[in-house]
Amino acid sequence: MKSLLSFFFFFVFLLSNAQINWMSMEQAIEAQKKNSKKIIIDFYTENNDASELMERQTFSHPYLIKFINDKFYAVKFNALGKTEINFYGRVFKNSDLSVDASNQITWHQFAKFMNVNSSPSLVFLDENGKTITNLMGGFSAAELEPYLTMIGNNEYKDIKTREQWENYQKKFKSKIKE
Hints:
This protein is an alpha/beta fold and 178 residues long.
């Protein structure tokens, strides 16, 4: 009984310390060369309630952590940051952080290139670096799960219309208990 209890606490400890293996864009591209996986990019901004909520709740859900780590290379990217990024031979930067006419800091060139103009946003890339889709706004774990599953398992290739997507969602069996 004592060993069973010890195993249970060890298992709970492992689950509570599990996290998404975040990496830089360059690391994800290099990893793709060795082991082909899709890439998910979390475009976030600091001091953004929706970005922080996704980090605390969505990206900490044990099922999503395991699924993302198994099926994707996960990249976390500050859409307003100064990080220079080399993406398939193109260099993107935001070295002249400035404030535009509406008193907003300008978006990073890479975020603009990926058609990201709000935070948080998720961009999914296939194994060759081509954009599959992007999702804008905050998502709970349960809301994000069908998208991750559809893309991670290549089911998106068979969904061509809104009606097919709606049917997919109806038939989708969630693995998340909230």
